[in-house]
Amino acid sequence: MANASSRIISEDYADLLIEYYGDYSVFDRFTDAAVDIINDILAVVHIPVEQITNAAVYEFGYSAMPSLFGLISRQSLEASGILQIRAFPNFDLRGQGVLIGILDSGIDYTNPVFQNEDGTTRIALLWDQTIQGVNPPENQNYGTEYTREQINQALQSGNPLEIVPSMDEIGHGTMVAGIAGGSEVPESNFYGVASEAEFVVVKLKTAKRYLKEFFRLPVDSVCYQETDILYALEYILSAAARLRRPMAICIAMGTSQGAHDGRGLLSNYLSVIASTPGIAVVVAAGNEGSARRHFFGLVDQAIGYNTVELHVAENEGGFSMSLWGQSPSIFSIDIQSPSGEYIPRISATIDENREISFVFEETVIIIDIQMVESQSGDQLILLRFSNPTPGIWRFNVYEREDLNMGFHIWLPMSGFVSDDTFFIRSDPYTTILSLGNAELPITVTAYNDADDSLYINASKGYTRLNLVKPDIAAPGVNVIGPTLNQDFAEFTGTSVAAAHTTGVAAMILEWGFIRENFFRLSTTEVKKLLLRGARRDTAITYPNPEWGYGILDVYNVFDSLRIGIIL
Question: DSSP letter string over 198-249?
Fold first, then answer.
């Protein structure tokens, strides 16, 4: 097989995510392929992009096509009880000795909030996946790794970018890292949570064009593919092991792709990571709660179907839409366009790929039906629209058998489809993005600590299988964070809340590992502590799909530890 290194970054090659479980014979079915082993379970197979046709889901399976992830966001210390607990000398925790793992749009390493008082960097390692041909990390085939020493050399020079040319052009990663662990700047009212932690940062390369085109995303959309996120996770875990430090990992991105049940390849892997002692994984829930991009329905037994009405915006170039049927029922659909053109009921078969054209409209729909999708075991109907006619599209959804289990439909997340493309009868629940549905990571929603109200756009639970998510709410409205011009601004969204919670997780890891109180702390134990210490409203029943188990209150967490109530 060919070498994988050049293919990882080349637009001429597609990336397939494959479960192989140590059996290398599974790669024999691929032609002109290069294989990059991630771990004992997962591998990435690189094949010529010409082999990715409209039938790729039928040929390779839905899970083999990497999902596309978008960035989630656009006074908090006091609200979370951090200042209160720091009044006790033994609990003046600031993340010392702990690493914060950031995989995002990069970081402005020249910003003073990521430096010590002497001007040296608090970034231990930086892997920029977008800079090729210099010094890739060990066991990685692309990008460039920069060490603390190189970053310090850059900071001491007159032109830092000549030595370390890594930049955050978007600002999302800089904001997330700053809120989680930036140095305090009281005169600007900025206080990073774990202000003495150090960072391991991965700047993710953007997704390949073929994958955006396959899922009908705008070519200029900012998104990252599942394979690069997996590589990033492997890197920061390896860094934590090399540096022999505990680490809190912040994942402030998500996707509406997948079954929303926590059983996808990356979600499963996150749960494995989350069970590792010394690692705390924090994930943002998403900002899809009021976006009208989710539909849930039951079939009307009297007429035999449920009509789904979808409003498509003017100038919508294309989009995908995925229907997930609850097992063991079997679902099928028919389609009516805005002009009234009718596509008769498409009966469900084991697996099917079909292209539908319209006589009076330019719209083309590629439909993939997987009766038993490999990760969830449930039925998937994936529709990919090209040149969709604006107006109201109607889909009658039929259910075979008499179980009336119901079905979910999701449109792409914010940034991947027009805000004016939405379901007429939408459902705000079950809108938590993957990876927020993964079982073991700490999934964080956002609230306004000024009035204790839930952030209006926050995604709501539970998962499609009724697992309690989100886990907890943290400050996420008008929170001050660093900008790319080395100033500060207010940020809002669940990315902000996840960053805040990552800093708190770093404090807990400092208490457990660095101060030698509890060496078994993993994400599971950190989550238990946070949930037990959460502040709850007596008028609300917990857990619930909006607030999870309540509002983050680290004072309550450590107050219980002070009086000896441990797990």
Answer: EEEEEEPPPPPHHHHHHTT--TT---EEHHHHHHHHHHHHHHHHHHT--EEE
Residue 264 tokens read as 């996808």
Q: What are 317-367's pLDDT values in tens digits?
A: 999 999 999 888 899 999 999 999 999 999 877 788 999 999 889 999 999
How many helices (H) and strands (E) the chain has is answered by 13, 28
pTM across the whole model: 0.94
Residues whose CB is less than 8 angstroms from the CB of residue 228 and which lie 6 or more positions away in sequence, other chains included? 129, 204, 205, 207
Burial class (CB in 10 A: 0-12, 13-18, 19+), 276: middle
Q: Is 512 left (phi over 0), alpha (psi -120 to 50) or beta?
A: alpha
3-state helix, strand, coil in the chain (%, to 5): 25, 30, 45
Whole-angstrom distance, CA of residue 369 vs CA of residue 332: 9
The candidate with the shortest Cα–Cα distance to 337, out of 288, 393, 282, is 393
365/353 Cα distance (integer angstroms): 11
Q: pLDDT tens digits for 214-270?
A: 999 999 999 999 999 999 999 999 999 999 999 999 999 999 999 999 988 999 999
Please answer whether residues 351 and 58 qualify as being in contact, where contact means their C-beta atoms are separated by less than 8 angstroms: yes
Pairing of strands 407-410, 294-297: antiparallel
Q: At what angle do helices 523-533 and 265-274 cross, to 10 degrees?
A: 80
Distances (CA, A) of 42 to 94, 268, 412, 416, 435: 36, 11, 25, 27, 17
CA pair distance 56, 214, nearest whole angstrom: 9
Cα separation values, 253 from 26, 196, 267, 280, 470, Å: 31, 25, 13, 17, 15
The H-or-E segment that residue 176 falls in is helix 172-181
Cα separation values, 103 from 151, 294, 557, Å? 18, 27, 27
Residues 6+ apart with CB under 8 A from 167: 106, 108, 161
Tens-place pLDDT, residues 365-406: 999 999 988 888 899 999 999 999 999 999 999 998 778 889
